[in-house]
Please model this.
Amino acid sequence: MAGVSGTSGSLIGYARVSTDDQDLSLQLDALRQHGVIDAFIFTDKASGEKSERPGLSRCFDVLQKGDVLVVWRLDRLGRSLRDLVSMIERLETMGVAFRSLSDGVVDTTTASGRLIFNVFGALAQFERQVIAERTKAGLAAARARGRLGGRPRIEGDDPRVITAKALHRDSGNSVSYICRTLRISKTTLYRWLNV
Model:
């Protein structure tokens, strides 16, 4: 995977903490000491598991070819190894390098950093294959025991279906109201109405 070497662009920083109780100071200080100016530091206070991270989105909007995205640690950027590899590959296609300050040689502006990142990519691919193999083996074992998987089919005489149909027949009840009342999704409601 080609990296961006000899970059002449800007250093762009990203910092994240998981909760409002946590403090960004340590990460911000490290980014500043590395030469990232405040105007180019983007932050989020959100769990890494949340897909919406507005600071990271703004950061990606600002990044240009030749820039280097700098983070304090790898886990501040990606939610998992697979997510991290995917994000760094996205940066590579943009012509943007990546540098982690606390993880040693993870710096795609250097040959050794690119090597380490390629090892991460191989590990992520291995992880995907192992998960796929385990899933196939689990499904095959379940089929061998006579289980087909999926949700059990709900019948028309189920009390929940009867209630949903009764609420739906009353024209005063909106679909949203029925779903909130029964704590089900619209998809589930329409499936029950067709039973």
About this structure: Residues 12 and 39 are 9 Å apart (CA to CA). The chain has seven helices and four strands.
